[in-house]
Amino acid sequence: MSDNLFLRGVILLGFALFMFKLIVTGQIQQLVAPKMLPFLYFAMGTLFILSLMQIWRSDDKKQIACCGCDHHERRSPFQSSIVYVIFVVPVLTGLIFSNQVLDSSVAAKRGVQLSGLSGGDSSSDDEFFAQLFGNEIEEVPIEKREKVDKNQLEKALLASDKVVFTKENYLEALEIIHNNIEHFVGKEVELTGFVYREPDFVKEKAVIARFVISCCVADASVYGMLASGKQLNSIVNDEWVKVTGIIKRTNYKGNVLPCIEIKGINKIKQPNEPYIYDGSL
Amino acid sequence: MKRTISNVVNDFFSFLLLLMFLYLFFFYEMNKITFTLPKEWAMVNTMFLSIILEAIPFILIGVFVSAFIQTFISEDMLQRWMPQNTFIAIVLSAFLGIIFPVCECAIIPIVRRLIKKGMPPAVGMTFLMSAPILNPVVFASTYYAFQQKNQIAFARMGLAFLVAVLVGSILYRLFKQQNPLKIKASSMHEHVHTENKWKATLYHASDEFFDTGKYLLIGAFLASLVQTFLNRNALLQIGTDELVSPFITMGFAYVLSLCSEADAFVAASFGNTFSEGAILAFLIYGPMLDLKNTLMLFAYFRTRFVISFMLILTCVVYFVILLYQILF
Questions:
Q1: Which chain B residues are closer than 8 Å to A30 by Cβ?
Q2: Looking at beta carbons, which residues of chain B come within 8 Å of A102?
Q3: Residue B31 lies inside a defined structural domain of this protein
Q4: How confident is the model over A170-180, as pLDDT tens digits?
Q5: Which domains occur in chain A, in start order?
Q6: Residues B110-148: pLDDT tens digits?
Q7: Which stretches make up the DUF1980 domain (chain A) (predicted)?
Q8: SS3 (DSSP) at B194
Q9: Strand partners, A224
């Protein structure tokens, strides 16, 4: 297949250009988590170099077809063109079709978590974790440290009268409220997310939810908080809203869960960064 | 003569493709979009692109390491480094991941190259199973995802080690030194390169990118279909039984084809639906075997070998998990 070196070079270039465009337009954020970006820069650069090399190599008439490492099985032209079609398709669909942001249809298939990151308290774990990785901390950067420290956040939230969810504290705040629900009942809350309803929900009930992503959208999970109020009547699924209200306690499927009694609700545009990225490595 | 005509045709199409890519890159405005897909297929497209974008850097790393081994490490060197006793080699290779944290996308080209260079297949497969789990990055992400159940992270490491060594030993008993790789006609002779070794490494890498990449792309496409259309809620409801649920989560891990670094987070989102054993089954089975890399295995290894490997791995994981559930 050495006669296809030029084609291979073009395909590699296509991948590099596709990645470059995603990175420049920022759309990459809707496909993979920011922590993967260095790897993507590496891939883009490498593909670009490989592609130039292939194109250059294809012009080299003295090139001997063989390098003996079984990449070069003889295939019929039809078979080998199928292989290239497989590579061309993602570049084309990637450049032509815009990304579909995950919505409530996906949430319905994956299920919504209403209790934060797998529930339970973890106050002493951070210390343990630091001990465990004490000497390795330089090699294994624990991004969590750049984010909100959970213990500090817990103290701050318990002390204040109003809980404001942000991109940075989203998961931690959900977990803290769920675990200390008795301390949070009656407090004000402000939360941004999209509206999602389970099939058995009435119109006045919904989950204000966000997708949380670890590496790429394939591993997205949905985390959110129950909300209720007449104001929800006019809001359909997948609409983005900023909700303010009071935290109440509610019973849902046998679990005690926090629930927002809505005071005010604003429809907003879907944010440029619709996803939350979890703070693990 | 025929050859040259087909070359001209090839070059012509390649050139057209190049123009098309450049046009789309520079002039096609993503926002004033004229073509749209039906929503579900747009979702499949998004999942698909996301999976391959995440995998490509690691495939490239795997391909480079493999090409590096091909060019720079000789059979003799490998022979000298390998312990004489295969069982010791199996146990040691299970720890290799701590030094070389390679994920499941990158590992297959590397292991295939190592086996080709004379590493006993059972040792190579042990490395293939353990490296994506037994490494510091995966330990940390598992620990983070299961903060209040930190035994999960430790159990994941311990059981993964056990499974890798057990399956490795069984493969050794069954296949000994038989070559499990497919033999291809052109692979018989070692080539002599007159060019410098670095250039050779790059050439190998880009050839292998296409070689490996096609299976990854097909696998990623299948996984994105599952990601979009499979209703997890329905599945989660079947499986709370201690005997059945590990099977369900293993099947889950297989079809979802998640990265070993990200799967703990997904497992955490299962909440309390599944027992600890079932969650561990998910966390151990997925990185060792999934839809995304099954095709790659079939492409490189003999069918009989791959099927035996899959069966043995499935049984061993299941029984190890049952044992864990009984003991803890």
A1: 46
A2: 43, 46
A3: no
A4: 888 888 898 88
A5: 2-96 (no CATH), 104-277 (2.40.50.140)
A6: 998 899 888 889 999 999 999 999 988 889 888 888 877
A7: 7-113, 147-277
A8: coil
A9: A209
